[in-house]
Amino acid sequence: MTPTTAPPPPQHSALVASGLTKVYGTGPTATHALAGVSLTVAPGESVAIMGPSGSGKTTLLHCLAGIVTPTSGTVAWRGTDITTLGETRRTALRRQDFGFVFQSGQLLPELPAVENAALPLMLGGTSRQEATRAAAGWLAHLGLAGMEDRRPGELSGGQAQRVAIARALVGSPGVVFADEPTGALDQATGNEVLSVLTTAARSSGAALVIVTHDAGVARHCSRTVTMRDGLVAGEYHAPGTSNREVAR
Ligand SMILES: Nc1ncnc2c1ncn2[C@@H]1O[C@H](COP(=O)(O)OP(=O)(O)OP(=O)(O)O)[C@@H](O)[C@H]1O
Ligand SMILES: [Mg+2]
Predict the structure, then answer these.
(1) The CATH number of the domain covering residues in 15-247
(2) Which of 33, 157, 187, 234 has the most CB atoms around it within 10 Å of its CB?
């Protein structure tokens, strides 16, 4: 009798997008923002998405994060297709499993830094005390000890983005999505914030999907995906991960 060997355990990818298309509008004025994108993000991996303006980067990010429903295609998060979930479950999943960092203006101006950072936990039902303790820990970790009580208007742009990063990570998300998180900062501050973001995501075990125009971001990411006209035009794996460049 031939001994049967068990199949290898499935490779659990964090996020698997297959054949994503997104058409905005209808008729002759319709915009094909995504024309068939497939992308896998492994747990803990950092992926930079680059490409010209209008190439579909933000649309892709929003589809991956369950903010936008693709016209066709699927997005599996830990095995569940999030494109078919109802809005209530999708919102809950986003809150629980994903973190977000946007370009700027995402902090609530009337709340102190620590409460801004604690918000996702409090919305998820964690007690105020516990949430602010966790948030203060992240703020300190990101170099903002002593600034917990400052409101966003009393912080520099770089400091405000660190608060936004603390908020994105405080709930221990599986993936952090960032859309040009340093777009409103000068280059030096932007690089610093980028390094803080990638290091913090890595140390928390979160995967990172980051849209950026800054080629230097590749230094901080394990993979760079280039978009063109709604398609993935190329992929670059940083040395040490899988050292190859693939042009499609
Ligand atoms: N809500 C919308 N309604 C209609 N068209 C849209 C919408 N959002 C995006 N588009 C169009 O879809 C295409 C892709 O836009 P998207 O925002 O994804 O590009 P991007 O690569 O993020 O660009 P940028 O670098 O300028 O941010 C563009 O042609 C854009 O005009
Ligand atoms: Mg964009």
Answers:
(1) 3.40.50.300
(2) 33
